């Protein structure tokens, strides 16, 4: 039982690290929007389309990656509602971190 909990907690740590990396990339792309020259009028440039597609892809990847290792439930809403102190999965109750 202890080995299973250690495996779950290790998977959670890896997914959490990847989630934070994706979040950093998201903020980096948002920051990059400031430096993209905007063409006249209301049309978007090809670079802006690429940045928007990357933003959407990162948000989708964040929801796909940050899941419970036990039941595969999304942990994103629970992570932010608990002020980043998520210790157990809100769906199945498995312990994700050591207290």
Report on this structure.
- The protein has 99 residues and is mostly helical.
- The chain has one domain (2-81).
- The protein contains three helices and no strands.
- It has helices spanning 2-32, 46-65, 76-81.
- Helix 1 (2-32) runs antiparallel to helix 2 (46-65).
- The longest helix has 31 residues, at 2-32.
- It is elongated and about 60 Å long.
List keywords for this structure.
single chain, 99 residues, elongated
Summarize the structure.
By secondary structure, this protein is an all-alpha fold. The protein has helices at about 1-30, 45-65, 75-80. The chain has one domain (about 1-80).
Strand content: under 5%
The stretches of 5 or more residues where confidence is low (pLDDT under 50) are: none
Helix content: 55-70%
Number of E-state strands: 0
> What's the number of domains?
1
Distance between the termini: 17 Å
Q: What does the oligomeric state look like here? A: single chain
Report the radius of gyration as a whole number of Å.
18 Å
Give the averaged pLDDT, no decimals.
Answer: 80
Indicate the topology:
Blueprint (H helix, E strand, L loop, with lengths): L1 H31 L13 H20 L10 H6 L18
């Amino acid at each position: 039982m202890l080995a299973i909990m250690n495996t779950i907690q290790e998977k959670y740590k890896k997914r959490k690290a990847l989630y934070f990396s994706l979040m950093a990339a998201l903020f980096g792309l948002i920051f990059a929007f400031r430096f993209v020259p905007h063409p006249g009028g209301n049309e978007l440039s090809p670079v802006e389309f690429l940045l928007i597609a990357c933003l959407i892809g990162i948000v989708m990847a964040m929801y796909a990656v940050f899941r419970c290792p036990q039941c595969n439930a999304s942990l994103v809403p629970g992570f932010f509602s608990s002020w980043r102190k998520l210790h157990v999965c809100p769906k199945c109750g498995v312990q994700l971190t050591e207290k």
